[in-house]
Amino acid sequence: MTFLEIASISKSFGPVNVLKDVNLSIKEGEFVVFVGPSGCGKSTLLRMITGLETPTSGEIKIDGEVMNEVEPADRGTAMVFQSYALYPHMSVFGNISFGLRMAHRAKAFIRQRVESAASILRLESLMERKPGQLSGGQKQRVAIGRAIVREPKVFLFDEPLSNLDAELRVQMRTELIDLHKRLKTTMIYVTHDQVEAMTLADKMVVMNGGHIQQAGHPLTLYDDPDNRFVAGFVGSPRINFLPVSVKAVGGDTIGLSLEGSDRLTKLAFDGLDTDSDEMELGLRPQHLRILKDDEQALEQELLLEGDVVFVEQLGDVTYVHVDVSETSRIIVRADRKTYSGQSRIRAAADLSYAMLFGPDGARLRSRSLPTQ
Amino acid sequence: MKISVSATAVTTPRKVRAVSIWLVAKWIAAFLVALIAILPIWWMINVVFSVPGEPVSINPRLYPTSLGDGWAKISMVLTETEYFRAYLISLLYALLTITGVLIFGSMAAFEFALFEFPGKRTFFAIVMLSLMVPTAVTIIPTYLLTAQLGWLNTMQGLVVPGLSSAFGLFLLVQFMRSIPRDMIEAARLDGAGHFQIYWHVVIPLSKNALITLAILTFIQTWGNYMWPLIISSDPQMYTVGQVVGLFNSPLSHHTVDIVMTANLLAAIPPLVFFLIFQRKIVEGVAMSGTKG
Ligand SMILES: Nc1ncnc2c1ncn2[C@@H]1O[C@H](COP(=O)(O)OP(=O)(O)O)[C@@H](O)[C@H]1O
Ligand SMILES: [Mg+2]
């Protein structure tokens, strides 16, 4: 059941086409996260949902009602800004109650609503303070309080945690998840941080270049990305991309070899349908293993070899960055047992988790494998 | 060890002496400037609060001697001449101008600084151009316009032409531009209408700029001599400036003491104002100078 529907929305600022034919439907109570690199149009999309920006074409529906012509304040949305945008001359109470006061609600009603929001956000003892006397996390909570008292149908957050330090950010994330559990209201959250997106989202919407690249559960996007961009964006450390050429196409396997190598490796794949033989193979760092000096790669494994350029030793894991050719650098996930300071390593890749991408960046899926 | 100790012992007093000479020079300079600024005012006070003729006699005094004589002169000026009426007119003129400049200036600046509308740049450029035109050029057309409206010798004739303050608009626009756009949008999402945003968000945030503009407008209006002189020929509408002019004129039959009393009374409001708002005035001048 669709609660919020974005139907073929486009937006241009003058000649610049920022969003191109965006379609998305959101269920009631979902926690949706828009994620993508800076400048990809996330804020613009959010601002169109709340009415601060008008779409060039397309329609936005909330709860079955077309919102394009509805005033921002009447859409049933509430927004929390990255800068908090608190009114510095008003107390915390004044800030949280501002919307209700502008609507000329009764004093007792305002007090009761503000107090209940304050108790959810643990702001009771700060009601008389001015924003200038609050810490970053407290300001953030006041900004959320201002949204809560409006009892919106949809909460909108535009990078609300990016002004906080790392520790507070993690804490506020759990508070937001908690808030979502209590209120059960639809929330749309914008961030450029994919880790944040993965921890918060029921539904993660990856955007790039004015398009939605893929939308779905974070783990679906991680396991089964639709294209090279999503594969590269979701997951930390990043997935490795290796240029390969298709040397042989069999019934349900294809033979691949790395650029500049003659060794042929078989990959289970049914129905390869492309004009070009040049492809890219996506391999997550944990699907590579470092070979011991005397160890050989298995026949179905891809063999990689190169100079170590950089090592991240994090205690439990070790990420080894290796130049396997002039143009490809890969990351291998190892640990202290398997990597002990070699300057050159050989690694074997288990291809059962490998993903194949065509020259245009689209994911090539095997026919027999279940796709989502 | 010994050498280094004696070396510091020699250099330290030298340093102190160098600094203190510089400091003394600065103090002397500041003192002289203050003396030059204060002396005329002090002389006025001296002449007013003494027995008539005494300060300019063969044996002059540099300090007031008679409080009673001073009060007598002041009450004479206020009760037996048109001075008090002029005082009230000047005060009303200043208050109405300040109120008007703040209302019109803040409303126009609100639109110019925070919203887009067709022709915004052109309009703003025209207003700013008027800053470059000297008053001498516009005063005759303004007079003719005011005369045609039949506003000679009226309070509105005195006040209205001064309400369109390009400088005030400029000052407020510069200030309001620094208000974050997010804050205006947050207010809009909170359901505040256009006027509510102006009144509940932008005006309180612009308090400092508005106070500065009010002070500068007061100083300018109180000291404005030319426009009242042109617009009101009727003594009933004279401002303090004009009345003091009458006292000072060569054909005046008042004695020096009385003239000085009139001058002193005229100088008191701006002086008091300055003493109270000294910091704001300096800030305001800095603000209008640096932010442009
Ligand atoms: N009001 C505007 N006028 C012109 N260009 C804009 C405006 N708002 C955003 N843009 C442009 O649209 C693009 C997307 O911006 P935005 O939605 O803020 O990206 P994100 O939030 O994903 O970082 C950017 O290139 C930005 O420069
Ligand atoms: Mg943004």
Short note summarizing the structure:
Chain A is an alpha+beta fold and 372 residues long. Chain A has eight helices and 21 strands. The model of chain A has no long low-confidence stretch (mean pLDDT 92).
Give the low-pLDDT segments of chain B. Answer: 1-12
Tell me the major beta sheet of chain A.
6 strands, mixed
Strand content of chain B: under 5%
Mean pLDDT of chain A: 92
Sheet with most strands of chain B: none
Shape of chain A: elongated
Number of domains of chain B: 2
Listed once per kind, the bound small molecules are: adenosine-5'-diphosphate, magnesium ion
Task: Report the strand count of chain A.
Answer: 21
Rg of chain A (C-alpha, Å): 25 Å
H-E string of chain A: EEEHEEEHHHEHEHEEHHEEEEEEEEEEE
User: What general outline of chain B do the C-alpha atoms trace?
Assistant: globular
Helix amount of chain B: over 70%
CATH topological fold name of the largest domain in chain B: MetI-like fold
Please identify, by name, the CATH architecture of the largest domain in chain B: Orthogonal Bundle
For this structure, what is the CATH homologous superfamily of the largest domain in chain B? MetI-like
End-to-end span of chain B in angstroms? 58 Å
User: Given this structure, which CATH class of the largest domain in chain B is correct?
Assistant: Mainly Alpha
Radius of gyration of chain B: 26 Å
- In sequence order, what are the helices and strands of chain B, one letter per element? HHHHHHHHHHHHH
Q: What are the defining features of this structure?
A:
heterodimer, A: 372 residues, alpha+beta, 23% helix, B: 292 residues, mainly alpha, MetI-like fold, 13 helices, 76% helix, globular, binds adenosine-5'-diphosphate, binds magnesium ion
Provide a descriptive summary of the structure in words:
The complex is a heterodimer of chains A (372) and B (292). Chain A has 372 residues and is of the alpha+beta class. Chain A has helices at residues 42-50, 92-102, 107-120, 136-148, 166-183, 194-200, 218-223, 228-233; strands spanning 2-13, 16-27, 31-35, 57-62, 65-66, 77-80, 154-158, 186-191, 203-208, 211-216, 240-249, 253-258, 265-268, 278-283, 288-290, 301-313, 318-323, 329-334, 344-350, 355-357, 363-364. In chain A, strands 6-7-8-3-9-10 form a six-stranded mixed sheet, with helices on both faces. Chain A has a six-stranded antiparallel sheet with strand order 13-12-11-14-20-21. In chain A, strand 16 (301-313) and strand 17 (318-323) form a beta hairpin. Chain A is elongated, with a radius of gyration of 25 Å. By secondary structure, chain B is mainly α. Helices cover 76% and strands 0% of the residues of chain B. The longest helix of chain B has 47 residues, at 2-48. The model of chain B is unreliable at 1-12 (pLDDT under 50). The A-B interface holds A 50, 52, 72-74, 77-79, 81-83, 85-89, 98-99, 102-103, 146, 150 and B 180, 182-183, 185-193, 196, 200-201, 204-205, 207. Residues 13, 16, 18, 36, 38-44 of chain A line the site of adenosine-5'-diphosphate (ADP). Residues 13, 16, 18, 36, 38-44 of chain A line the site of adenosine-5'-diphosphate.
